[in-house]
Amino acid sequence: MEFLIESITLITWQQLIMYVIGGLLIYLAIRHDFEPALLMPMGFGAILVNLPNTGVINQTSEGIGETHGIIQWLFEVGIQASEALPILLFIGIGAMIDFGPLLSNPKLFLFGAAAQFGIFFAISFAALIGFDIRDAASIGIIGAADGPTSLLVSQILKSKYVGAIAVAAYSYMALVPIIQPAVIKLITTKKERRIKMAYNPKQVTKTTRILFPIIVTIIAGLVAPMSVALVGFLMFGNLLRECGVLKSLSETAQNVLANLITLLLGITISFSMKAEAFVSWDTLLIMCIGLVAFVFDTIGGVVFAKILNLFTKNKINPMVGAAGISAFPMSSRVIQKMGLKEDPTNHLLMHAVGANVSGQIGSVVAGGIILSLVSGML
Amino acid sequence: MTDFLLSLELMWKGMLGIFAVIIIIMILVFLLTKITAGKPKS
Q1: Is the confidence at residue A222, as pLDDT, over 60?
Q2: Structural domain includes residue B42
Q3: Across the interface, do A366 and B24 touch by the CB < 8 Å criterion?
Q4: Helix, strand, coil percentages, rounded to 5, for chain A
Q5: ipTM at complex level
Q6: Cα separations (Å) of A243 from A194, A215, B25?
Q7: Domain that holds residue B22
Q8: What is the DSSP annotation of A307-322?
Q9: What is the pTM of this model?
Q10: How far apart are CA A127 and CA A124, in angstroms?
């Protein structure tokens, strides 16, 4: 009867920790609605891959030889070999985004660049405490506030911390409503937070909406060729949405495709959450650096808005700068809520949404630029 | 220390690259908006 308890005796303390982490992710997803579409599958997957002799990863058994595990296969095919899952998800994300608020006020583009500062600050911080440039860049990209970009960059750079990076990226995205208000309050005055911004949207023609994704792809592709997979698929999704003749495909991308890939992505990433790689001090450090990245993204956006205010007649509420991260729509909602709290007549939502969708472009461009620059440094 | 210096170079070049891409796109969108003004909106 020994075979009944054989697996139990093989459980290590690191695996027990992973069961707790998996349970915690599932709890946060269900109880607190923290990115449930990703954290729930990742939590469950963390338990699956850490069962002794688990059948979801490749095993070698006496008499049988090697057997293939489904999660390992999904990881090797869908992420490791081609980065297909995160890239295909961008089609769905692109089809979901309405760039209208940004196109009607193009000045907001600038915040999508400024709020990427946290990525580079975090890279320097990680390098300073001892990570090599490859891992530091992979960890810093958590500051893109964009799960698929973080996954893609860390995977292409062959970082050994893909699991921890994915957990940090998705966890902090869910924590944007807690992180951003605290940071914004620290670096702005009440007077600044009460600055009102008039909303006078310009007409956005259909031609502009159609040409926009094509222009973005070409410009980003010429300046940072490595960003083409990210930007190109994001913009392809957006072109499906805006072209007006592919309504069915656009709806499929927004719903079926995005849901299907999200479903597989979470449980596939869990392959990189095996106890022997995940349970380490480095994981804790990565979680801390991820927080630093989000904090400095917010600081970068807010400070940039303050700098612009020195030169512009129509003042910008610095909180709008903080919405230049990719976490959409959480960040714009946070800014709207904070604006209304300071002054119930101050509606910043559309400005924040413009900055927020610009952040979606900024984050994928940042990912591509990092890949280009780091590959030249290695 | 070498990695830290590389990271500072990455910060400088990275932020420059992002702003370059974003500003070019912004200018083109401004131009596009001007050129297509007056046509029926979506």
Answers
A1: yes
A2: no
A3: no
A4: 75, 0, 20
A5: 0.89
A6: 39, 14, 20
A7: 1-36
A8: HHHHH-SSPPPHHHHH
A9: 0.86
A10: 5
